[in-house]
Amino acid sequence: MLQANQNKNSVQDLSTLELAQALMAKLAISPQDWHRLKSNRKVRASEQAAAAIIFLLKDQPEEALQRLQQASGWLDRSISAPPCPTHGHNRE
User: Fold this and answer.
1) How many C-beta atoms lie closer than 10 Å to residue 8's C-beta?
2) Dist CA 74 CA 44 (whole Å)
């Protein structure tokens, strides 16, 4: 129970921006997971939505809107991950 109270207090000590940045860090696809998760619509939409929150908190609504549109595109399947430039393509 002490651990839960300490975590609650530490979360309350963070600013809204810091909380959003922590969420973004948690949701970001790591380089080792990129190929496995690059087409996962839920993961990609979550990542973009978290980025949108950060831009809103930084008073950058145009950037936030772009990220929200990308999140929506992942969810409605109107966008897809591009192919990896280092796999299966001829290089010049």
Assistant:
1) 10
2) 7
d(CA 56, CA 36): 29
15-61 pLDDT per residue, tens: 999 999 999 999 999 999 998 999 999 999 999 999 999 999 999 99
Model confidence, pTM: 0.79
Give residue 22's identity as a one-letter amino acid code: A
Residue 40 tokens, joined:
């996962």
CA distances from 73 to 9, 10, 14, 32 (A): 37, 35, 31, 24
Give the pair of three-digit tokens for residue 83: 């192919």
How far is it, in rounded angstroms, from Cα 31 to Cα 11? Answer: 27
Instruction: Give the residue among 49, 37, 56 at the shortest CA–CA distance from 75.
Output: 49
Residue carrying the six token digits 């996962």? 40
3-state secondary structure of 34: helix
Both tokens of residue 1?
């129970």
